User: What shape does this take?
Amino acid sequence: MKRKREAVATHQDPPNTSKPTAVFEASGGRAYTVSVALPGSIISKYGKSISILSAVTPELKSLLAGQIARALAVFCVDEIVIFDDGQGKQRRVDGRSFQNGSDEFTGYSDPNYFLMHLLSYLETPPFLRKQLFPMHADLKHAGSLPSLDMPHHLRSDEWCMYREGITVEQVAAEQGSKKKRKEQSKIESNPDGRSFVDVGLQQRISVPAAIPPKTRVTIKMPGPTNPSADRDTFLVASAVAPSEPREQAGYYWGYSVRASSSLSAVITECTYPSGYDLTIGTSERGQPVSELSGLSQQDDIPEFTHMLIVFGGVAGLEVAVKADDELQKMGVEQPRDLFDYWVNLCPGQGSRTVRTEEAVWLGLMGLREVVLRKGKT
Assistant: This one.
């Protein structure tokens, strides 16, 4: 009997390790969101005494942005806010700034924008990037960064009830050779209140809404598509809010990117109508993050709908408070007064400093249990 069991065991197929198996699976709607805020000054080189902590070259600046983007994707962060803590020196390049239409590298002239630019690019599904992001020096090294491979980064042979797309002009179908197809005439994108969307499939999508061309939209598909369908045929679908895949089906659908002029603006300019109902600041002078996880098990932390986790730069959140005119008018001196909880992500750290991109990983991992236990579904 023992030999027979051993024989059966030997015939079991070994696991297939040739491709990833940890595919995100939606498990019902999710109401809660997780937001992360950090200063763009982490991109800057601002002072000889601490320049070793900063990203010096364009390659290193891009790599730093890629590390942060990976953390946001792995831990299903819904929003990233880049704020100005007064530490990132901005200077013009060749007398121009990006806001004036320059395509110069902004990693030195405007670190806040550079970080936003890279994070937005990496969040966008690969097949849409060329159409939504013109060539720019900021993106020179983006191709060498690790892929985020998020649920909305779908391949053409993958099915999902939601897809990201871009509105396009309708192309009049012409039969014949490839040469004739290159001469196809373009028609106004919404002559009859409809818009046509490219979602990375063989078929184009038609939605009953007038949307300007080259606009990114979230599409809810009516059903599985036919891989062999003619590209000149259109499938009728509907355009929905970018939050619907999360709220209705539970998909993680990437992160939005927002800029804030100061630390206080991160909270006061919250895009959620009800604001953030659970705020956490990070500092080596806070309580151990493990204590916060313990409180979540004891129901001492209330359930939340919108969580905000704020990280400081090399000099901490204290400098952001001092650089914030609104907080100074209110008499706020300590950043801990702005948050519900003030936590230390790595008690007993062996290095003198924990870089912000490292702190993001530590914080999201350390607070993972709080998110899963206390997030309202």
Q: What stands out?
A: The first strand starts at residue 33 and ends at 39. The radius of gyration is 24 Å.
